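As the next step, I needed to go through one protein, both as residues and as discrete backbone shape codes, included below for the reader:
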Amino acid sequence: MSSHSKVEYRMKSRKKPGFATRAIHDGQQPDPLTGAVAVPIYPTSTYVQHGIGENKGYEYSRVTNPTRDRLEENLASLEGGVAARVFASGMAAINAIASMLKSGDHVVCGDDLYGGTPRLFNQVLTNFGLEFSYVDTSDANNVEGAIRKNTRMVHVETPTNPLMRISDLPAISQICRRKNVELVVDNTFMSPYFQQPLALGADMVVHSTTKFLNGHSDGIGGVVVCSRQDQAEKLAFLQKCAGAILSPFECWLILRGVKTLAARMEVHDRNGRIVADFLSKHKKVKNIFYPGLANHKQHELAKRQMSGFGAMITFETGSLKNANRMLKKLRVCSLGESLGGVETLISHPATMTHAALGVKGRKAIGITDGMVRISVGIENVEDILADLEAGLGVI
């Protein structure tokens, strides 16, 4: 058999295109009107109808929009879901999921979530009769022990923000199925490139598309990817009713960003491993949280359910004073909120992402004033290391 024939055989025998191919092509087909390679932005609020009940599938852009449809098709493909629904932010996506519940329902949550999530749950949604319990989901037994008769949902992040704890998704999903409870997984830190929660038993996956999916720190958004059509229909109804939709331009930004997701995540992961190794050996670093290190308590679990370790690292500088000195010295690493951009972003959880938890709330889960969280970018890693060395050198 010739080499050409062998290539043809491999192509024909493959069940579905690879991840990078789907990221570039699914939902991103050339425009049928002009042949444009890039999905067009449809910045329209409404659509002309040819008669009563006669339209081309679009009536009003709060309900549906062609650019948004393309993005939802793309993200559903990448997470292996039946459908996806995009929202104006990651928090809007989480709020939409919670809106599928009713007064009296109970949710079990990880106790180490992004600070905005418990703020929404505790300060807003409890006013509407929802109940929330927080446990360390890195132990599946804690999840099972917290489930009540009125529990309808379990919400976890893995790895967690910022302590990088790993939740055993197959184990938790089995518990949820036995208890008839839906499992929602925030997959923002890993992206669908490195982790596939639906394949591990989750019912819905949520992302802040602002982060790795977009990848360029220039657009805010969120998505829920569904494992069942009834979930997708409920979320489409919530999009229509509440209107927390993603604009056509923001959809286009994510469609553009996701085309390079596979390539970017490979560099994020490679740089992340090098930076984590550097920090783990540095005398000024008191502790480091990164599942890619062999001494991470859940390193083996991370290897089983993730195909990479990613770019997110948290480390301990020893005090607020030390953290502030270091952060002021940095030049390549940008101090700011958010993560997942091509640039290295560094933040201080106690005063930024988790400020809303308060001193007691942060202390209860182990977030200190000296902790710094870094989202390693795709710059030359030698420049990132030199910048961190300079920053650590002043503490």
